[in-house]
């Protein structure tokens, strides 16, 4: 059985919206987009690089997949993250996407997210990771399908924006399996569901 790890960049007040660019996700009038890059440093790059060192498949919801396909799909910068993402098999959970041809090695998973991901996890293959796709993470968390979390907790509050655990969330306990603090104050915490 495959394991599923969610990697989420998060503010102290739980916001996961619009990390990378001002125009990344302005839904509901969110104006703080691009809050994350100023906290990047070598320690963060090293820690995130560990996940690209081993084979793995990626899991997305439609919106994040489309954004990543635009940003990373045509990149040829030699960045190890670019190389990893373009080479990885990318599963896209969507009820509305017509095809997944816009980004190489992408496979469309139609239907209910919980059912399709549970079926995918039960199949033999590489472990799965979610980067972003907060709504998918919330859905799969509620169904008990996420095995591990890597949270990059940034030292700021935003006061507005979509939060990682909004709405109903099941009672779940985690074990802290490791943590690193970057030079810019980001705590990278690794949790495993008990």
TrEMBL record:
PANTHER family reported for this sequence: BIFUNCTIONAL DEAMINASE-REDUCTASE DOMAIN PROTEIN, DIHYDROFOLATE REDUCTASE FAMILY PROTEIN (AFU_ORTHOLOGUE AFUA_8G06820)
One Pfam assignment: RibD_C
Protein name: Dihydrofolate reductase family protein
Bacterial bifunctional deaminase-reductase C-terminal domain: residues covered: 2-187
InterPro entries attached to this UniProt entry: DHFR-like_dom_sf (IPR024072), RibDG_C (IPR002734), Riboflavin_Biosynth_HTPR (IPR050765)
């Amino acid at each position: 059985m495959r394991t599923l790890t969610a990697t989420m960049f998060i503010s102290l007040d739980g916001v996961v919206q619009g990390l990378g660019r001002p125009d990344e996700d302005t839904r509901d009038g969110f104006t703080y987009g691009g809050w994350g890059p100023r906290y990047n440093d070598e320690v963060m790059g090293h820690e995130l690089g560990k996940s690209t060192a081993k084979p793995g498949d990626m899991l997305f919801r439609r919106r994040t997949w489309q954004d990543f396909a635009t940003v990373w799909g045509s990149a040829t910068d030699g960045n190890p993250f670019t190389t990893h993402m373009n080479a990885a098999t990318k599963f896209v959970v969507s009820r509305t996407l017509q095809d997944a041809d816009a980004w190489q090695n992408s496979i469309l998973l139609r239907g209910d997210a919980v059912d399709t991901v549970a079926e995918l996890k039960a199949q033999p293959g590489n472990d799965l990771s979610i980067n972003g796709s907060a709504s998918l993470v919330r859905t799969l968390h509620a169904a008990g399908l996420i095995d591990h979390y890597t949270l990059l907790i940034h030292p700021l509050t935003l006061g507005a924006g979509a939060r990682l655990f909004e709405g109903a969330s099941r009672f779940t306990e985690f074990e802290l399996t490791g943590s690193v603090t970057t030079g810019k104050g980001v705590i990278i915490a690794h949790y495993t569901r008990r």
